[in-house]
# Entry
Amino acid sequence: MTEDSAQKNVLILGIGNLLWADEGFGVRAVEELHRRYEFDDTVKLMDGGTQGIYLVQHVRDSDVLVVFDAVDYGLAPGTLKLVEGAEVPRFLGAKKVSLHQTGFQEVLAMAEMFDEAPEHLYLIGVQPEELEDYGGSLRDVVKQQIDPSIEAALSYLEKLGITARKRPVPLSEQHTLGCQVMQIERYENERPAEEAACRLGDERLIVDERWKAPENFDRELEAVLAETPDGRILGVKV
# Structure
């Protein structure tokens, strides 16, 4: 790092929903960046998922914000588009692929309102191919953009004097930034067959005769909330 860049707090953020195929691009990209590279302590890599406004303090604390996301630009599937500076909020809202984008636009607006918006803002967006496959993973044309997106992020940071160190050996997937269950290899290999699990989300599930509403929703909810990590139920008779 240069003397100037050493004073900058950097947030590298992947946002999106892993459960909806290409919507998970941003999270997968930042996970892979974390596996291959390490940074100084002033750089934070984060799986932002669909947290929306809950990310605002992280954004307010950063001087440099790099965002990986799936964005519908109306381009050919798999197209990588790089947007910098004041244009980023506009492109995030070009055509929303999910509610998380509305939430993240609000995050940027809130940071601006507090006069704590990042000085440098960079969006690495890929055009999704498939968003209606519940439980699906990245399509090949989108997955192929993970490497170019990482290179774009490293190049942008390099211009600001922020350098990454390539790990001698990439981290195993056990060192994921997010949930162990959602590791990409496990997520893809353990997906149930189509006849055993819906592909289109709640609408199909609700009309499926195999689905039944809880007999006593409040009682079941209390039981779930009272469940301990070892599976015991506290304070609720079941």
Q: What stands out?
A: The first strand starts at residue 10 and ends at 15. Confidence is low (pLDDT under 50) at residues 233-238. Residues 5-185 form a domain with the Rossmann fold fold (CATH 3.40.50.1450). The beta strands are 10-15, 37-38, 43-49, 64-70, 80-84, 120-126, 165-166.
